[in-house]
Design brief:
Blueprint lengths: L4 H12 L1 H18 L11 H19 L17 H20 L2 H11 L5 H8 L3 H27 L1
Helix pairs in contact: 1-2, 1-3, 2-3, 3-5, 3-6, 4-7, 5-7, 6-7
Length: 159
């Protein structure tokens, strides 16, 4: 648990928000401990992937039960950044977080597992219980939705 708690907490907080992260991380580890006898160390998935799979499913189940979360974004500008640049970086981080938040849960899960946790396409497919082509499709659609939303916000800001 100590080795994987940070990754699980980061995953569930990015997927479902900081308010639910503690409960979802705890639920994830309860499910891990219950299912641990079924895990085969020489099977297809590494332990870390298997745990993140459970965390992903816990977060998706949560998202199906509740309304979308309000993203919490922490941006750490460099110490030599001007206040204007720091404010711009924070604003960009908030816009990106809001765009990720707006993604459908399955697209958000694939995007977070790939972008933040650097899982392979095969590992994401296992985590989401789908085939690799579905993962590729979800990632492509998630990226297209993010580009569209962020471009739209930039265009709205100019007018």
């Amino acid at each position: 648990m100590e080795r994987h708690q940070h990754a699980v907490f980061a995953l569930v907080s990015r997927m479902a928000g900081a308010d639910a992260a503690d409960d979802l991380a705890q639920e994830t580890f309860l499910r891990v401990f219950r299912a641990l006898p079924e895990f085969t160390p020489h099977g297809q998935a590494r332990l870390s992937t298997w745990i993140l799979t459970i965390g992903t499913r816990v977060a998706i189940d949560h998202l199906r039960r509740v309304k979308p979360f309000q993203a919490d974004v922490v941006t750490l500008p460099s110490s030599d950044a001007s206040p204007e640049r720091a404010a711009a970086a924070k604003g960009l981080g908030q816009r990106i977080a809001a765009a990720v938040e707006a993604l459908p849960a399955t697209y958000r899960a694939a995007f977070i597992l790939r972008g933040y946790h650097e899982l392979s396409l095969q590992e994401i497919a296992q985590a989401l219980d789908c085939d690799v082509n579905t993962v590729k499709s979800r990632l492509g659609r998630a990226r297209a939705m993010l580009r569209s939303r962020l471009r739209g916000e930039r265009d709205d800001a100019r007018t």
